[in-house]
Each structure stands twice: as C-alpha cells, then as structure tokens.
Design brief:
It is a single chain. By secondary structure, the protein is an alpha+beta fold. It has 3 domains: 9-197, no CATH class; 203-362, no CATH class; 369-431, no CATH class. It is 43% helix and 13% strand. It has helices at 46-52, 56-63, 66-81, 148-163, 203-211, 215-229, 239-261, 311-330, 334-364, 373-387, 391-396, 414-430, 436-444, 454-465, 470-479, 485-488, 491-494, and strands at 16-17, 28-30, 40-44, 92-94, 97-100, 103-106, 112-119, 125-131, 170-183, 186-197, 263-264, 286-287. A hairpin with a 2-residue loop joins β5 (97-100) and β6. α2 crosses α3. It is globular, with a radius of gyration of 24 Å. The chain binds adenosine monophosphate and magnesium ion (MG). Magnesium ion (MG) binds next to loops.
C-alpha cells in the first residue's frame, strides 16, 4: 500500500497488520491483555518510536508539564500497559515448544501478548509485543506477570546490545502496573515491557509444529519464515533446506558477536533462539567482566551448560533440534533428510570459527590475515584468563595497559608475560601496511569502551524500584554510545568503565522473574 498517511495523529502512527494470525491455528490463540490498576510510564524509547513511525512527538509533549502533557502521558501508559489497545490491534499469544536445559517441553507465550506487526514508514515489519501483560492459555502455573526490575533489565541490556551493533529485539517502553507480583523474594512491583522484534518465531515454534505432526502447517511456517526473514530465498528449490542453512549462518554470526563483547545469554533454550537471528529473551543474561570461558551468572545453571565459552556449541545443539523439526519437509525419505540436515549443521562450526576469528582480528586492529593470528589471539586470552583481566578494558587498552593495570596477577610474572605478548602483537601490526591511526580506528570501532556492567545495572534497577529513574536514564545514555572512546574518557562516563570490585565473581542472575 502506498500513500499511507504516517503522520496520522489520530491513530498515533499505528499501522498494525496481522500476518502471523493467518498461519494455521495450532500456532496462536486470540487473547487480550488483562488490565492493570495504575499504569505509570517508567521509561520509553523515543528514538525507536520514531523509527517505527509512531507519533513520538506526542510522547514528548506528554513528558512536558501541564494538563495536556499529563493526559498524553496517561494515554501512553494506558497503551503500553495493555489497558487500552492501540488502533488496529488484534492481540494473540503464540504457541511454541522448546528444549529447556536439554529437555523437551511445550510452552507458548505465558505472559506475552502480540498486539500485531507494525509496518514502519520504510515498509519494514516488526512485532509489537507486551511482556507481562497477564495470563494466556499457555501460562501453566504462571501469573502472566513480570517484575519491574526484570523488565527494566531487559530494556537496559537489549538497548545496550543494539548500540553495540548486535542484532537484538528492542525495547520500546516499560510501564509500572501499580500492582504487586509475588516472587520467591516476596512482593515486588510489577511492570509491562513493550518488546519490538523482527518476529518472535523461535526454534521452539518449529519444534511445536513438528511435535504435532502437522506437515502442512510445518510447510506454511517454513514459507512464512523465509518470506519474513530471508526473502531472497523465497522460491528456493528446497525451502526447508534453504531456511536451515540461512539460519545456521545467521546464528553463527550472532554468537560470534556475543563472544566479541563478553555477552552471556544465560538461558539458551531452544525457545529462546529466534529464527530472525536476533538476540531474544533477556532473562539471566549478563556481561562477563574478568575473562573466563567458564563464566556463568544464572543461579540455576549449575553445570555451566550455558557458560560463556559453551555458547557456540549450544547454538549448534539448538540448530540440530531445528533440523530435526524440519526433517519431514527436508526430504521425503528419512535417511536422505538426515544426510541433508547433517551436512547443513556441519557448516555451523566453520562459519562460527571464521566469524569469531574475523571479529577478534578487528579487535586487535588486524586488517589482513596470517596463519598465526589464531595463536596470537589465544595467547592473549590465555594470559587474560590467568591474570583475571577485565575482558572489555583489556581489549580496549592493549596499547597502554601498564603493569599496575594488568590485573591482580601483575605482581608476579604476569606483567612480564603481557609485555612479551604485546611485543609479538606490535611485530604483527608492523607486518601490515595500515598506519597506527587506521589500526586505532578499527580497534575503537570493535572494542566497546562501555558495557552494561552488572553492578551498574543493579544499582539503576534498585533506584528505579525506589521510584527514582535518573540513575537508569544516565546509564542508558552512557550505554547508547559504547564505541565513543573519547567520550568514555570523560569523568562522568569513566566511572562506568570500572569493573566490579570482585571482578563480578559472585554475581547471580535469575530466570522468569
Ligand atoms: P523464559 O524462561 O522467560 O524464556 O520463559 C519460559 C516459559 O515460561 C515461556 O513459555 C514463558 O512464557 C513462561 N513464563 C515465564 N514467566 C511466566 C509467568 N510469570 N507467567 C506465565 N508464564 C511465564
Ligand atoms: Mg523464553
């Protein structure tokens, strides 16, 4: 449709479509949000609203003083709490299954409700979903709600990931409900997060359809996913195989990007892996401080299944579950289908290795390739592990890192070891034609100066729970420009670069809060 009036103020810029609702009915159920008592906007994302074509100017006016502002603010809070549906909404919950910690379960949106797909002024399609909007037929024993701190946590980390240049779902708003939710630690303030995603199609969505043995629905889902995320592959001779290969490639790239910034997802169940290649479902995730491949934050991940260093292997395991779900549509004969699946899955490791290595080269300022680069990178990581060096700051300061900054091990032989490594690195840099300035530019664009450090995130969430959002707003502003190293040296930003006193060792995160 052309000539659509995106400045349509009356509709607030909403232009919702419902392509997912056209898929076979085993994939969704119509259900609306449950109203909340006293919605109050805590934080919203004006820039994202603008990108979506929403009338963000009205939001800004709403922030202003006066009766009109207060009225606008109330309306926004009503919409993003689920109390009032935006024009054109047709809410539904999506069905899916998933392997959680290796075990198959049927799940579905137990506390999330899709309002529809917003068509942006440039014609892109994004799911707009309310998370924590009340029970659905898939809630099982859950209350359908979410805590303010968990929703703010998703807001902060997802927006930080976006600023880091990593594909991710986005966060449009967090609205406090004025209601309490009961969790292990007692009554906590509740909230609704508005999540914006390329789609919410998960590996678990395919597992759900495969488990129901509905081949027509499976084909429909394959075609829909190709159409929505891999339109260049529509019309492929073997659509399921084309989809599998493309998803494998995108996941390999995504996990390599996570590894490059020290991100630990924390709960890489197959229901938390999106076919779009976006990072999704921010629960117990956190950023590693001191480098250690065994880093785990999630309180329930006792065996370290989802540890930092296991993420590529787990992604491949999840993709194997996707391949299994696709078997019947990969090839009519099972043996041939399995062979096709295995061949595609075999591409993951190579692709991941290639992308990881390319990312690490950029972090070191390397423009060309030498066979010994892998050994050079591994030597640095080995040193960082032994010295308990901060992952982010070490990469950021390779040129200047001094004996005193070189981590707790610097008293021993560790500083000398680092010096030896640095000499090796300098010699390597000298073997390429780029100037020091070019090297610096490449490194700065690939070594974030700031990441959402766990103690700073917790501090912001705690203040917000007490009713003060200024700490959170400041953190969000700092995280919005992670590669601006000049700004990062300014005193007001520099404090965000300081690691947790204990290297983040005892930090624990929780699922489903
Ligand atoms: P997660 O660990 O957040 O990916 O959630 C796993 C599953 O549990 C999903 O199906 C969620 O919809 C569901 N779930 C999590 N928290 C709740 C809740 N408070 N009420 C209902 N369902 C929930
Ligand atoms: Mg999930």
């Amino acid at each position: 449709m052309s000539g659509h009036d995106f400045s349509n103020r009356a509709a607030g810029g909403w232009r919702l479509e419902h392509s997912y609702a056209q898929l076979p009915s085993l994939l969704h159920v119509a259900v609306g949000p449950t109203a909340v008592r006293a919605p109050r906007r805590v934080v919203w994302n004006r820039k994202l609203a603008e990108e979506l074509g929403l009338d963000a100017a009205a939001w800004a006016r709403a922030e202003g003083a006066g009766a009109a502002g207060a009225e606008g603010g109330r309306r926004t809070a009503e919409i993003f709490s689920g109390n009032v549906l935006p024009p054109g909404a047709a809410p539904l919950a999506q069905a899916y299954a998933g392997h959680q910690y290796g075990h198959f379960t049927t799940l579905g949106d137990g506390r999330a409700i899709l309002l529809g797909e917003q068509i942006t002024p440039s014609g892109a399609r994004f799911d707009v979903q309310l998370k924590g909007a009340g029970p659905t037929p898939y809630s099982r024993a859950g209350d359908g709600r979410a805590t303010l701190s968990a929703m703010l946590r998703e807001y902060v980390i997802s927006e930080a990931m976006h600023a880091l240049g990593i594909p991710t779902t986005r966060s449009l708003a967090v609205v406090a409900t004025g209601e309490e939710v009961w969790r292990q630690d007692g009554a906590r303030p509740g909230a609704v997060l508005t999540r914006v995603a390329a789609s919410h199609i998960r590996v678990g969505t395919f597992e759900w359809v495969a488990a129901r043995r509905d081949e027509a629905a499976l084909r429909a889902l394959v075609d829909y996913t190709l159409q929505r995320h891999y339109s260049e592959l529509v019309g492929a001779e073997n659509p399921a195989l084309a989809l599998l290969g493309a998803v494998i490639e995108r996941q390999a790239r995504l996990i390599a990007q996570w590894m490059g910034v020290g991100f630990v997802h924390g709960v890489m169940n197959t229901d938390n892996m999106a076919l779009s290649g976006e990072t999704i479902d921010y629960g117990p995730c956190a950023f590693m401080e001191a480098y250690d491949p065994a880093t785990v934050f999630s309180s329930i991940d006792r065996d370290g299944r989802y540890a930092y260093g296991n993420q590529a292997q787990i992604a491949q395991w999840n993709l194997a579950r996707l391949a299994e779900a696709l078997l019947t549509v990969l090839h009519p004969q099972e043996e041939a289908a399995v062979a096709l699946a295995n061949e595609a899955l075999g591409g993951f490791e190579k692709s991941f290795q290639r992308q990881w290595l390319a990312g690490m080269r950029r972090k070191l300022g390397l423009f060309n390739e030498e066979p010994e680069d892998l050994a050079l990178i591994e030597a640095l990581l080995t040193w960082m592990h032994a010295a308990k060096a901060d992952f982010t700051n070490t990469f950021g300061e390779l040129e200047t890192l001094g004996a005193t900054e070189a981590g707790p091990g610097s008293e021993s032989g560790s500083a000398k070891e680092f010096e030896a490594w640095r000499e090796r690195w300098r010699a390597r840099l000298a073997r390429q034609s780029q100037t020091a300035e070019e090297v610096g530019r490449l490194r700065r664009a690939n070594c974030p100066a700031v990441i959402p450090r766990n103690h700073r995130v917790e501090e912001a969430l705690a203040a917000a729970e007490q009713g003060s959002v200024s700490v959170l707003e400041r953190l969000l502003a700092v995280l919005a420009a992670p590669y601006d190293s000049a700004r990062a040296r300014a005193a007001d930003v520099a404090e965000y670069r300081v690691p947790a006193p204990d290297g983040g060792d005892g930090y624990r995160t929780y699922c489903g809060t």
